[in-house]
What does this fold into?
Amino acid sequence: MKPLGFVHWMSAAPRHRHGLVVLQRAIGVLILFRVATEMPFASYLWGPSGIAGGSTAVTFGPGVGSMLDRLFTTEFGTRLVLVTQALGGLGLLLQYRTRLATVVTWFAFFVLGQRLPELNDGGDNIATLALTYMAFTLPMDAKWKPGNAAVWMHNVGVLAIGAQVAVLYFVSGFMKMNGSTWHHGTALYVISQVEWFSHPATREMFKNPLIVTVATYSTMLFQVWFPLAILTSFRRAFVAVGIVFHLGIAVTMGLVTFSTVMIGLELFLISDADYVRLRAFPGALAANGWRQALSRGVAQTLSWRSPA
Amino acid sequence: MRVVIGWLLRAATLAWLVPHFAMTALFTLPLNPLKMVTIRPLNASIGRFFPQNWSLFAPNPISRDQSLLARCLRDEELDLPNDSLPTDGWYDLSMPLWHRFQQNRFSAYDRLARPHTYALREYLGGGLALQPWLESCQKGLQKSCDAYQEGLERTRKAARRMLGRVASAFCEDIGPPGAYAAVALRLRDTPALPWSRRYERERPHADVEVIRVPIERGVATTGLYRAERLP
It folds into this structure.
């Protein structure tokens, strides 16, 4: 992309708006799932007599930090933070006042995360970061004019989320390249024996030499190549593989919320033009039959043309 | 004037975006010479405001089940040395939660096991946050060894508190209030079988004494272990 082309891309229109809606909904689902399953244990986890010992002072300093920590000195305050988080998540899911919902969700999620950091996983980590960058973006129904500063800021947020996903994938794949079990193709066999991240039903599958070798190597290669692939027209194919990959993680490893937000991030990377084509697919199916519609879809997915 | 401010804003956002993600990448990458000389500003910026870790089962995935065993102790058992503790009455606080989570993925059992699983790991080895210091120390840098030791003491103190609270909550749950005075904790370490022994049924384990802590009265409990709920 030429420098002027980049400036045009940033200024002409807000990008990835459909993808952003999908990501917001995925984070909304994550938040509501966590609140629904963890609310019964709120006192134990975050309450004034609970196990948590963390403080927001780490980020906000002693003044603001101790003020925010006071929220957790009562059972009411603890639940209030959770309810606030749920309302924010609901706003994201239903696409109601998404900017406010983003800020509210980020605040509650961040405060709870600082209170008990041991509870969070990579999915919560990337969701917090995505929410931070999402605060720059425009709601789906917002009015905008080409060249507006608001359009530019939206696209800064979009670029930041994309860059964060690229860092996540590249670092994760790059670090695996130094691991002996990933090198020797047995990493997924090893994980399949750890009760925390496995399911007994899939344990035997990873004792098969072909399955374990292919699955281990393809995981590592997929992660390393992902940041480059999303800049090419292979993006759609990588996104499709990524979705299958994370569905597998949700089922076999039980990382349901992590997979939800990762699938949301992968779908975020699909351009608005692709979403329009995707929406036209059922119509094409009805008009031309499934063979023609599918072959056109595959041809477009693997097309070398630059993404619209 | 508004046009100038608009373009300054645009330039400022780009000037932030590039170094921010360069620093993010450096912060999350393994230890390297550049990271070693910039680790303090990285921790103070990305580490403080955008904390993240993408090791995600790298460089090697977890290769063992490390569960926390607890034995609630009555007053009369307090003076028993570790090697004379009763062999009965030990409860596994991790494995049942993982098994229930395998049965129901749409539950919080996994989350309930996380705090003490991390605390146990941090108590034993310092956890992920201290890894760069440990790696650097192992390469012979004395300053890193000092930083690691200092961090380990701090981490152990926090982990001990967490383990104590989790175990106290468990003892308060299973017995009448005030029945127990302390709790002994063990690590049950069950390594994964190597690939060459993948068809063997038994996975040997080893138990390691960790700590003994006084019961913390009034700690909130999960309610999962209350006598009326146990089969």
Remarks:
- Confidence is low (pLDDT under 50) at residues 304-308 of chain A.
- Residues 182 and 278 of chain A are 36 Å apart (CA to CA).
- The two ends of chain A are 13 Å apart (CA to CA).
